[in-house]
Design a protein that fits this description.
By secondary structure, the protein is mainly alpha-helical. It contains eleven helices and no strands. The two termini are 32 Å apart. The radius of gyration is 21 Å and the shape is globular.
Length: 258
């Protein structure tokens, strides 16, 4: 789940299209830089570590990056790594707050979220969405007091997050397949097409199913796998409540169809 969780947020590139000045130029550059950064900061970093320390000698309770810097003669390695981790976490949280506020704003405009998220501040920023996102972050931090074991709490949060984002990525892939089916002319006219197209969508969906099987094999990740459907039940109930208040007739029709 940690490996999947590490890639959470790459879909945010698409959400910035509405606020980009020249999306036809900037989005391809941003998307193309993602695999390059993964290779440099993830793959090459692992190669450097394993070139110095055999993977069998890596201690689970210690950071391999810290051990590598210690071998290089840097006694302040732990502090350096902690600084990098904290800045990376802050950057990730910032992107999460940005995307959540914009998503809530878009859902509110479509009538799928409370109307309060549709209001903008004087600087045309969805402030209510930002406040809601920050509140959720604080509630996530309070989870440490509910689950005293830090490792167990971290595993629960990362596993649930990985599962939810795999669900989001699945919706994106299915939307892409539907787009290819019903808008072939628009796809053909696109200047920046997805390599592999339909085939890679099915490869990714198969990989997600494989990850679900792996998560069910371990006790700690299995707990989160069992807990995740509860979130979808809460989300469905909230969605029906919001739709019934904003669109009574549509909500009745949706209920009858379901």
């Amino acid at each position: 789940q940690i490996a999947v969780f590490a890639f959470v947020g790459i879909e945010l590139v698409g959400t910035t299209a509405a606020e980009a000045k020249n999306p036809e130029r900037t989005l391809p550059r941003a998307i193309n830089s993602i695999p390059v950064r993964i290779i440099v900061f993830y793959v090459l970093a692992l190669i450097a570590i394993m070139a110095v320390t055999p993977w069998r000698d890596v201690v689970p309770g210690k950071s391999p990056f810290v051990e590598l810097f210690v071998l290089a003669g840097l006694p302040a390695a732990a502090s350096i790594i902690n600084f990098v981790v904290l800045t990376s976490a802050a950057s990730s949280a910032n992107s999460g707050v940005f995307s959540t506020s914009r998503m809530l704003y878009g859902l509110s405009q479509e009538g799928d979220a409370p109307k309060a998220f549709e209001k903008l501040s004087r600087r045309a920023v969805p402030a209510n969405g930002l406040y809601f996102s920050c509140t959720c972050l604080l509630l996530g931090a309070a989870l440490i007091y509910v689950i005293p074991d830090l490792v167990e709490a971290f595993t629960l949060v990362t596993t649930v997050s990985a599962l939810l984002f795999m669900f989001v990525w699945t919706l994106i892939l299915l939307s892409y397949l539907n787009y290819r089916k019903h808008r072939p002319a628009l796809h053909q006219a696109s200047k920046y097409k997805m390599p592999g197209g339909r085939l890679m969508c099915y490869v990714c969906l198969t990989f997600f199913a494989f990850i679900l099987v792996l998560l069910s094999l371990e006790d700690d990740t299995r707990k989160a796998l069992i807990f995740t459907p509860l979130w979808f039940l809460i989300l469905t109930a909230t969605y029906q409540l919001v739709r019934s208040k904003r669109h009574p007739r549509t909500a009745v029709r949706d209920t009858q169809d379901s």
